[in-house]
Amino acid sequence: MSKEKVDLPDNCNPNWVSQKVGKDGDTDTHYGQRGNSNHGHTVRNSDGDIKYARTQGGHVKIDDNRSSSSDSGSSGGGCFVTTATLRAISKTDDNCAELTEFRRFRDEILLTNESDKNLVTLYYKIAPQIVDSINKENNSVAIYNNLWVNYISKGYEFLKQKNFGDARALYIAMMNDLVKKYPGVLA
Question: What's the predicted TM-score (pTM) here?
Fold first, then answer.
C-alpha cells in the first residue's frame, strides 16, 4: 500500500499503517508509532466522509453505528464539541493549536475556581449528548461550521489575546444555544 492513499492526520509520521476496505465500502485505517502511544484510527465511507475517528486523545463519534466516548481528564481530551467541530472542518490533529489553547483555558483558568469547575462538570455531562444529537442531524456539517464561525474560532481568538472573560462568556452563550436546540441533554 502506498502512503499517498492512506488518510492520516496532519503532523502524523507513523512507522506502521494498516488499511482495509470493508464489504460496505468503508475504508478503515489504523496507524501508529512503535514504542509510544501515538496512534489513531479513522473510518471513511465510500464517499470519503469521516464516519469515525479516534486518536490517542480519545475518540469522537461521527457515525450513529459506532460508540461514542472521549477522555475527560484535565490533561487531554474532553473538548467534545470543539473536537467534533474541528473534525467537521477537517482539522484532525488532536494537538492542533485550537484544541491546545482550549485545553489550557480549561485547565489553567476554568478549573481554578469553584463556579467554573461546575461549568466544566456540566459540560462533560451534556456535551457528549449534544455531539450525538448534532451527528444525528442531516445538516450536521453545517451545524458544526456554524459553531466554528460563531463561537469556536472567536473563542480561540479571545484565548490567544488572553481575553479570558470574553472567551468564558462566549463559551456559556454557545452552550446555552446548544441546550436550547437540544433540550433533551439536560434530562
Answer: 0.59
Residue 81 Rama label (left phi>0; alpha psi -120 to 50; beta): alpha
d(CA 141, CA 139): 6
**Coil, strand or helix at 172:** helix
3-state secondary structure of 155: helix
* CA dist 107 → 5, 104, 115, 164 (Å): 38, 5, 14, 13
Domain ranges in the chain are 3-186
pLDDT single digits (tens) 122-163: 888 899 999 999 999 999 999 999 999 999 999 999 999 999
68, 77 Cβ separation under 8 angstroms? no
